[in-house]
Design brief:
The chain has 186 residues and is of the alpha+beta class. The protein is 24% helix and 32% strand. The longest helix has 16 residues.
């Protein structure tokens, strides 16, 4: 863990709802993140590539809150996590690309939190020095797709039968991409 870590880089933001704060994941967010993950409906697990219901996974995420190659962001109301997002700079020849994920608690969807966290992902990608962001989602996830498309993400690929849900059904996977603006001094 380095001193130039994520913890101080992303600003804390308050949404149009004064009760919601968007900020970097902190070391003491473990219990709240675990409660958030445990409360997600089974349907959401199709969209996640990490098991937020696993205490081991949550502990790993919280320990990595200061990693220099990724940023983790939470939306909180009081002490409750109601949204989680991250962007990770990919290794090697894809080091200019950030891989992004986002999930919102069902009780807080359709209230602008997804868009707020998506904007935070874009800002975090810029801080990581990546020039492109990518994310994957199942084709049926139209609300999430709309959030990202409104921010300028575009479909770059469609992988047929790429995702399998818990009932064994196959789903197409969309790949969305976003080119970050060049920094002002570039």
């Amino acid at each position: 863990m380095c001193a130039d870590s994520a913890s101080g880089d992303l600003p804390t933001q308050t949404s149009h709802r004064s009760d919601v704060t968007v900020r970097p994941l902190a070391e003491d967010d473990g219990d709240a993140l675990a409660a958030f993950g445990s409360a997600l409906p089974e349907d959401d697990w199709l969209y996640l590539d990490m098991d937020l219901q696993s205490q081991q996974t949550v502990e790993r995420l919280v320990r990595a809150h200061e990693a220099t190659n990724w940023r983790q962001i939470v939306a909180v109301i009081g002490d409750e996590v109601v949204g989680y997002a991250n962007v990770r700079a990919l290794p090697g020849w894809q080091g200019h690309v950030g891989d992004a994920h986002l999930v919102i608690s069902p009780a807080h969807r359709r209230r602008g939190l997804g868009a707020l966290l998506a904007q935070s992902i874009i800002a975090a990608g810029g801080q990581l020095g990546v020039v492109k962001l990518v994310l994957e989602m199942v084709e049926e996830q139209s609300s999430g797709r709309q959030i990202f498309e409104r921010l300028g993400f575009r479909q770059e690929g469609l992988l047929l039968d790429q995702a399998r849900d818990q009932q064994g059904r196959l789903h197409n996977l969309l790949v969305l991409g976003y080119r970050l603006p060049d920094p002002p001094d570039a």
